[in-house]
Design brief:
This protein folds into two domains: 245 residues, Alpha/Beta hydrolase fold, catalytic domain (Rossmann fold, 3-Layer(aba) Sandwich); 83 residues, no CATH class. Helices cover 39% and strands 15% of the residues. The chain contains 13 helices and ten strands. Helix 2 packs across helix 13 and helix 10 packs parallel to helix 12. It is globular, with a radius of gyration of 21 Å. The N and C termini lie far apart (62 Å).
Length: 355
């Protein structure tokens, strides 16, 4: 018996041949230059073109931007779970079935060395709203056959990516005209506040109350232990997004006392200014201008984001803003099979509305 090298590409289960086209680009950002964390300005940017776009038959198509969750790097989209297709393969199968409008789907990297940016501009992390809206969007429109109009530009994401999908159309309505948010960070007292006393305990028991020592330990470790650092790192990263220290670039103001866990009202108020539930009334006209809003979360989400989705939906109803919402039987993770169908519904809705 002799092993020979085969020239034919692999097929299932190792990979599924795409009918469309998937490109892995590297881009260099001016908006992220000099960011206070010293994070790379060269970033991966993934672009999927549906079959009609890849062949050149479809032009002026809708563009959907996909935002990753906290701690996610863009190459995580290429990490296969047992017995499941990749999200990119699910997208390709969806478009190949022929019942979905053609589109360009862009995967955006907003990773930071703290785990994420919440897709906001911050003196503690860098200008990630500017990076996405003022650099990535024009780059895609100039290099791909997109419609190039906000009415045909949408954003979607899960968890922190869902947060970005909620707030970017409010902050930058010139860029996005539709959104889908899967388990987005919202209703901050439900999704964040419970972590504060556990962070206090971690700091007290392992780091003599010092966040600086915890961060140094995390950065020097050979492997990441979520049980040891996860909640504290997430909390610090959220502070970097919501309450950066204006007097010290790269530093943050925490919304609680690290010895007692007691809230610091003036800093917590800064966090709440970024809570989508509180933002909705300030940005009601921007939300009313969206052509599609869909919210969803697992009904047993560990971070109470199903509660947050319900609160945000109620606020939209109060403001008489059209949207759809779904709570399904599930938890926070393991729901990537829902992403492609939500994009199909989005694209069909935008097609029905026309230009």
């Amino acid at each position: 018996m002799t092993l020979r090298q085969a020239n034919e590409p692999l097929d299932r289960p190792w990979q599924r041949r795409l009918v469309g086209d998937f490109q892995q680009l590297v881009v260099e950002s001016e908006a992220l230059a000099g960011n206070p964390l010293g994070d790379p300005v060269r970033r991966p940017l993934y672009v999927y073109r549906s079959p009609g776009v890849a062949s050149g038959a479809a032009t002026a198509v809708t563009c959907v931007y996909v935002l990753q969750g906290f701690s996610g790097q863009l190459d995580g989209w290429l990490a296969r779970k047992p017995f499941e297709p990749l999200f990119i393969e699910r997208l390709d199968a969806m478009f190949s079935a022929g019942d979905c409008p053609e589109a360009v789907v862009v995967f955006v990297d907003a990773w930071t060395s703290l785990g994420g940016s919440q897709f906001l501009n911050s003196t503690a992390t860098g200008n990630y709203t500017d990076y996405l809206c003022d650099e990535v969007v024009p780059f895609i429109d100039s290099h791909y056959p997109t419609a190039g109009r906000r009415q045909r530009r949408a954003v979607t994401g899960h968890s922190s990516g869902g947060y970005g999908a909620l707030v970017l159309p409010m902050l930058r309505p010139d860029c996005f005209g539709a959104l889908v948010a899967h388990a987005p960070d919202t209703l901050f007292e439900a999704c964040y506040m419970g972590d504060f006393p556990r962070v206090v305990r971690t700091l007290r028991n392992h780091y003599d109350g010092s966040y600086e020592r915890l961060l140094a330990d995390f950065r020097g470790a050979e492997r990441f232990d979520w049980g040891r650092w996860g909640e504290a790192l997430n909390t610090y990263a959220m502070a970097a997004a919501y309450s950066p220290d204006p007097a010290r670039p790269g530093k943050v103001l925490l919304p609680f006392d690290t010895e007692t866990g007691a809230l610091i009202p003036e800093i917590w108020a800064r966090w709440l200014e970024h809570d989508p539930v509180r933002m909705a009334s300030r940005y009601r006209e921007q939300l009313r201008g969206l052509r599609h809003i869909h919210l969803e979360a697992g009904s047993a989400d560990e971070y109470m984001l199903d509660v947050g989705v319900t609160a945000f939906s109620r606020e939209l109803r109060r403001l008489e803003i059209a949207h759809s919402v779904e709570l399904f039987d599930g938890r926070h993770g393991g729901n990537s099979h829902r992403y492609a169908p939500a994009i199909r519904n989005l694209l069909q809705r935008l097609q029905d509305l026309g230009d």
